[in-house]
Design goal:
The complex is a heterodimer of chains A (about 350) and B (about 425).
Chain A: H1 3-27, H2 29-60, H3 67-85, H4 92-122, H5 131-154, H6 164-167, H7 172-175, E1 177-180, E2 183-186, H8 187-209, H9 211-221, H10 223-228, H11 233-255, H12 267-282, H13 287-310, H14 317-332
Antiparallel strand pairs in A: 1-2
Chain B: H1 2-10, H2 12-32, H3 37-43, H4 47-70, H5 78-92, H6 105-127, H7 132-152, E1 164-165, E2 173-176, E3 184-187, E4 197-199, E5 202-204, H8 206-230, H9 232-242, H10 244-250, H11 254-280, E6 282-283, H12 291-304, H13 311-325, H14 342-355, E7 358-360, E8 363-364, H15 365-372, H16 377-391, H17 395-404, H18 408-436
Antiparallel strand pairs in B: 1-6, 2-3, 4-5, 7-8
Helix pairs in contact in B: 4-8, 4-9, 4-11, 4-12, 4-13, 5-6, 5-11, 6-11, 8-11, 9-10, 9-11, 12-13, 12-17, 14-15, 17-18
The chains are: A mainly alpha (about 350), B mainly alpha (about 425).
C-alpha cells in the first residue's frame, strides 16, 4: 500500500468522527431552531419570487423567462419609492408605512405593465410552438436588463452592486437581533416570514374564495371547456399575467431590503434560477406545490448554509444543492411534488 | 479528376464562401486602406473579431445541431463549452494527472471533447426521459450545478471565481497535426505575441494566422456536422423533431438517436470551448459554464436560423459586428487606419461642436450617444431578437431557404442559372426592341 493511500485512509478515519461531531452539533435543538427560522425566511422569499411564475405557467403554459427581470425592476422601483419617502429623520413605523406604500405602488405599476406585455407581446404567440414563448420572454430579459442598466447608470448608481440607498431605508428594528425563546433571530427574517405568509394567504384566498379565482382554476384544468362555458379565458390570461408580474415585483421590493440580495441588475438572474427550481420541484402550475417546494428548498438552503459555515469548506454548497434538488426531482418525479403529468393541456 | 470537379460543382456555394472567407483578411486590409476606409472599418468586423465569430459560431452550431434538428432545447449547453475550455487550460497548467503541460493543443482539445461526450452521455441518459420545458430545465440544472462547482473548486486556481489562465505553457497553442512541427501554427489573441508568417509576398500577422487556423478547425467541424445531418441519422433527428411518436411507431429507437445527437453536439461544443480557451488563454466561469452563454448560442441560432446548420454562425457574426460597432474602444496598436466603434467615429467626423449640441435640458448629443448607444449592444440585440421571434421566426438563413425552396447550397446555383437563362433569352429581344424604336 502506498503512502498516499494510507494518508487518504487516515484522512477518512479523522473525517468520520468529525462528521459525527458536526452532526451532533447540527442536531442541537438551538441550532436546529435557528436553521429552521432561517430556512423559513428563505422559503418566504422563494414563495414570493415563484408564485407569479407558477400561476402564469399553470393557466397559459408560458414559462416566463422575464420573471427575474421583473423582480429586479420591482426592487429598483420599490427602492426608488422608499428613497423618496424616507429621510434620515423618518421614524421606524413611518418607514414600514413607506414600505407598504412602495409595495402598493410597485404592485399596481408592474401589474399593469404585465397585463400590457401579455396583451401586446405574448398573445400573438399562443398559436405557435411553446418554444417561441420561451424565446420571446428571453428576449425581453435582454431588453429589460439593459434598459434598467442604462437608467441606473445614468443616475450614477452602480448597476452590478446592491443599491445601498434603498437598503439604508430599512428601519433599525429590522436589522436588530432578538432573542426569542432562547434563540437569536434577526428582525428582517421575521418580517419576511410574516410577509410571505401574508402573500400566500392572499393568493390562496384569491384562487379559492373569489369568482375570478374559480375561473383561473377552471382555465388551468381545461381552458377549452371553460371557454365553452362562456367564460372569457383570454381576459383571465391577461389578469393572471398582470397579477403574476405584480407579485414578482413585490418580492423585489422586499429583496431591496435584504442584505444577501439587494437591488442590482444581476438580481434578475439570481432570482430567476431558484424560482425555476422551486416551480419545477413543486410541479409546474400548482400553487400548493410551489408553497411546499419553497419551504423544502428554503430549509435545505438554510441547512446547507449552516454546514458550509461550520463544517464543509466549499462556498458553493448551498447553491449547488439547490440545483441538485432540481435534477433529482426531475429524475424521480418529473411532474413535481403536486404536479399532474399534463398541466393545463400543455 | 472529373469526380472531384463534380463534387465541387455540387458544392459551389460552399466553395465560394470558403474562398471568400479565405480572402477576407487580405480584402479587409485592402478595403480599410481605401478612401472610404474609416467608414468601412466601422462596419466590417476585424480579423480578431472574426476569430471569436468562428469559435463561438461553432458552439452555436453545435447547440443548433441538437436543439434545432431534434427540437429538444438544450439550455445547459454551456456545460460542454466549459468542459472543453477548462480542459485545455487545466492540461496547459499541468493540473491533469499523467499529462505534461507541454501536451499538444490538438490532443487536449480532443481530450476535452471526449470528456464532454462522457458528460453528455451521463446528462442525456437522465434528461431524455423528459421532453419540452422539462428537458430544457433539467439540462439547465445540470449546467448550473457544474457552474457553481467550477466557481468554487479551489483546485482549479487560487481564486476559482475569477476563473483561471494559462500559467505554465509559455508558447502559443499550436493548431495542426500533432508531432509534425511544420504542420503546426500558433493561435493567439491580440494581447499575446503569436506567430507571424512571411512567405514571399504573403505576410500574415499573428491575428491572421489565428484566423486561418481556428477557421480550419471550425470548417472541418462544420463539414462533419453537415455530413451527419445528411446521413440517415440526421434524417431521423428531423423526424423526431417533426413527430416523435410517429418516428417511434415506425420502429426507430428515438431515445438512442436523441442521445446520439446530444453527444455529437457536446463533442463539437467542447471543441469550440477549447478553441476559445486556446485563443484567449484565460477563462472565467461566467464566459464558459454560465447559463447566459447558452443564451448567447440561442440568440445566434434564432437570428441566423433555427434548424439550419450555418445559420448560427451568421447570427453570431451579426452579434459580434453589432457589439463592435457600438463599442466605444478606440482601435488598438494593431489597427492603423481609422478607429473602432461609433463614438470615436462620430467624434472624428461630426466634430465636438455637433456632439455638444443640446438636445433637451442640457442633455447633449454626445451624452445621448454615450448613454444609449455605447456598449449597449444587448439592448438592440434584444429588441431585434424579439422582432425576429415575431416576424422572422425562421431566422436569416431559414427565411432565405424558405424563399428558395431548399438549402442555399443546392437551390441558389439553380436559381441563378434560371435567372441567367431567362436573361440570356430575353436580353437580345429587349435590346432589339429598344433599338428598333
Amino acid at each position: 500500500m502506498t503512502g498516499a493511500a494510507l494518508a487518504a485512509m487516515s484522512d477518512v478515519a479523522v473525517a468520520t468522527p468529525l462528521f459525527v461531531d458536526s452532526l451532533l452539533d447540527f442536531l442541537d435543538p438551538g441550532t436546529l431552531a435557528s436553521v429552521f427560522v432561517d430556512g423559513l425566511s428563505k422559503a418566504a422569499l422563494y414563495v414570493m419570487i415563484t408564485a407569479g411564475l407558477t400561476l402564469i405557467f399553470g393557466l397559459m403554459g408560458v414559462l416566463n423567462f422575464a420573471h427575474g427581470s421583473l423582480t429586479m425592476i420591482g426592487a429598483y422601483a420599490g427602492g426608488l419609492v422608499l428613497v423618496v419617502l424616507v429621510s434620515d429623520s423618518t421614524g421606524s413605523v413611518a418607514r414600514i408605512g413607506a414600505f407598504f406604500a412602495a409595495v402598493a405602488v410597485v404592485f399596481a405599476l408592474l401589474a399593469v405593465a404585465g397585463a400590457g406585455i401579455e396583451m401586446k407581446l405574448v398573445r400573438p404567440l399562443y398559436d405557435r410552438n411553446p418554444l417561441y414563448q420561451i424565446l420571446l420572454t428571453f428576449g425581453l430579459t435582454l431588453v429589460l436588463d439593459e434598459l434598467v442598466e442604462i437608467i441606473v447608470h445614468f443616475y450614477g448608481i452602480q448597476p452590478t452592486h446592491e443599491w445601498q440607498a434603498a437598503m439604508a431605508t430599512k428601519p433599525a428594528f429590522l436589522t436588530a437581533t432578538y432573542s426569542l425563546l432562547g434563540l437569536s433571530v434577526v428582525g428582517l427574517d421575521l418580517f419576511e416570514i410574516a410577509f410571505g405568509v401574508l402573500t400566500v394567504v392572499a393568493v390562496w384566498a384569491f384562487l379559492t374564495r373569489t369568482r375570478y379565482g374559480l375561473y383561473i382554476r377552471a382555465g388551468s384544468e381545461d381552458s377549452e371547456m371553460t371557454e365553452a362555458l362562456g367564460i372569457n379565458v383570454r381576459r383571465a390570461f391577461t389578469v393572471v399575467f398582470g397579477l403574476g408580474v405584480g407579485i414578482a415585483a413585490v418580492a423585489g421590493v422586499l429583496l431591496a431590503w435584504d442584505v444577501t440580495w439587494g437591488a442590482s441588475v444581476p438580481l434578475a438572474a439570481e432570482t430567476l434560477l431558484p424560482a425555476f427550481v422551486v416551480v419545477i420541484v413543486g410541479g409546474l402550475g400548482t400553487f400548493r406545490g410551489t408553497v411546499a417546494a419553497a419551504i423544502i428548498v428554503g430549509l435545505v438552503d438554510a441547512t446547507m448554509t449552516w454546514w458550509f459555515q461550520n463544517v464543509v469548506d466549499f462556498p458553493g454548497l448551498p447553491e449547488m444543492t439547490i440545483f441538485l434538488i432540481l435534477v433529482v426531482m426531475l429524475v424521480v418525479r418529473p411532474q413535481g411534488l403536486f404536479g399532474v403529468a399534463e398541466v393545463g393541456g400543455h | 479528376m472529373t469526380a472531384l470537379r463534380s463534387y465541387l460543382r455540387r458544392r459551389v456555394v460552399l466553395v465560394a464562401l470558403v474562398a471568400f472567407l479565405g480572402a477576407y483578411p487580405g480584402l479587409h486590409n485592402l478595403l480599410v486602406s481605401s478612401p472610404v476606409g474609416t467608414e468601412l472599418a466601422l462596419v466590417l468586423p476585424r480579423v480578431e473579431t472574426m476569430v471569436s465569430v468562428f469559435y463561438f459560431g461553432l458552439f452555436a452550431m453545435s447547440f443548433d445541431f441538437v436543439s434545432g434538428y431534434t427540437g429538444y432545447l438544450s439550455f445547459g449547453h454551456a456545460a460542454f463549452f466549459g468542459t472543453g475550455a477548462y480542459t485545455v487550460i487545466l492540461v496547459a497548467n499541468g493540473k491533469i494527472p499523467f499529462l505534461a503541460s507541454s501536451t499538444p493543443f490538438m490532443l487536449s482539445l480532443l481530450l476535452g471533447a471526449v470528456l464532454a461526450v462522457m458528460l453528455a452521455l451521463l446528462i442525456g441518459a437522465v434528461s431524455f426521459r423528459l421532453s419540452g420545458v422539462y428537458f430544457a430545465m433539467i439540462t439547465l440544472g445540470f449546467a448550473q450545478v457544474l457552474y457553481v462547482f467550477v466557481r468554487n473548486w479551489d483546485y482549479l486556481s487560487s481564486n476559482p471565481r475569477d476563473g483561471m489562465s494559462v500559467l505554465e505553457h509559455p508558447a502559443g497553442f499550436e493548431v495542426g497535426v500533432p508531432g509534425i512541427d511544420a504542420l503546426n501554427l500558433q493561435i493567439a489573441s491580440a494581447d499575446f505575441v503569436g506567430e507571424t508568417i512571411s512567405m514571399g509576398w504573403i505576410q500574415l500577422s499573428a491575428a491572421e494566422v489565428s484566423y486561418y487556423m481556428v477557421g480550419l478547425v471550425v470548417l472541418a467541424c462544420y463539414l462533419a456536422m453537415r455530413r451527419a445531418l445528411r446521413s440517415p441519422f440526421g434524417r431521423t433527428m428531423v423526424a423526431i423533431r417533426e413527430n416523435e411518436e410517429r418516428a417511434r411507431a415506425i420502429g426507430y429507437d428515438t431515445f438512442r438517436y436523441k442521445l446520439g445527437a446530444f453527444t455529437v453536439s457536446a463533442f463539437f461544443a467542447a471543441i469550440a470551448g477549447g478553441l476559445f480557451a486556446g485563443y484567449a488563454r484565460s477563462v472565467t466561469p461566467e464566459n464558459t459554464f454560465f447559463f447566459l452563454v447558452s443564451g448567447d448560442a440561442l440568440l445566434a441560432a434564432i437570428l441566423g436560423g433555427f434548424g439550419t446548420l450555418a445559420g448560427p454562425l451568421l447570427g453570431r457574426l451579426f452579434h459580434e459586428s453589432l457589439s463592435e460597432f457600438l463599442s466605444d474602444q478606440a482601435g488598438g496598436p494593431h489597427i492603423d487606419v481609422g478607429q473602432l466603434g461609433l463614438l470615436p467615429y462620430l467624434r472624428q467626423t461630426l466634430g465636438e461642436s455637433t456632439l455638444a449640441t443640446e438636445l433637451y435640458n442640457g442633455f447633449t448629443v454626445g451624452e445621448f450617444v454615450e448613454v444609449f448607444v455605447n456598449g449597449h449592444e444587448s439592448l438592440y440585440l434584444g429588441v431585434l431578437f424579439v422582432l425576429f421571434v415575431f416576424y422572422v421566426p425562421n431566422g436569416l438563413l431559414g427565411s432565405v431557404q424558405d424563399r428558395l425552396g431548399g438549402t442555399v447550397g443546392s437551390e441558389l446555383p439553380a436559381a441563378v442559372r434560371r435567372l441567367w437563362g431567362r436573361y440570356r433569352t430575353e436580353l437580345p429581344t429587349t435590346i432589339r426592341r429598344l433599338w428598333g424604336r
